[in-house]
Amino acid sequence: xxxxxxxxxxxxxxxxxxxxxxxxxxxxxxxxxxxxxxxxxxxxxxxxxxxxxxxxxxxxxxxxxxxxxxxxxxxxxxxxxxxxxxxxxxxxxxxxxxxxxxxxxxxxxxxxxxxxxxxxxxxxxxxxxxxxxxxxxxxxxxxxxxxxxxxxxxxxxxxxxxxxxxxxxxxxxxxxxxxxxxxxxxxxxxxxxxxxxxxxxxxxxxxxxxxxxxxxxxxxxxxxxxxxxxxxxxxxxxxxxx
Length: 242
Hints:
Elements: H1 4-7, H2 10-23, H3 36-43, H4 47-59, E1 63-66, E2 70-73, E3 82-83, E4 96-105, H5 109-115, E5 123-132, E6 135-145, H6 154-159, H7 162-169, E7 174-185, H8 188-194, E8 201-211, E9 215-225, E10 233-234
Antiparallel strand pairs: 1-2, 3-10, 4-5, 5-6, 6-9, 7-8, 8-9
């Protein structure tokens, strides 16, 4: 029977070993790692395999690689947090979605301008309600620039998360997601949908996805019930792969 060690790729074992040295303090912040040739000799592996391990460490945020200089240990940036909107919700419970409406708004220059869209003024609006069990927890409204000849399936509208929806519908490649989190009082219609008191504050999550050149492709606004929805954020997130 093969052992777990034999099943793990060699480059992964290299990355895991270096990660353990960083977390144990054996490799210090800013310290230069051995060269690819030195690591290859030490671990008995090829330079190509070393590069794969180094790439995994860089992806995990554990090292910075500077061309012509080498790879340097990076201390985890604990003041930088990444929010996982797709897996946020309440107590790790699976959320359920209900599609409320889909509309195509043509030639509304005011709406397009408010959303930051330029040129094409027609906008697709998608509204859905998120549930935890039988309780509504959030309202999500998405605004996409209309692309003629690129239809959206009902399953995409109901279940796809916002970045995925933008990527499927737009011809341009999404390259950045800017998110602003704020608090606002519920409007009467929002309170009705969330089965809440109008005076309650709500968590508002606004996302804007951009293409290269700061061209906005889509806007999402989520209104979340203060007692039924939670955001999850973590620093140093990708190192969990190791």
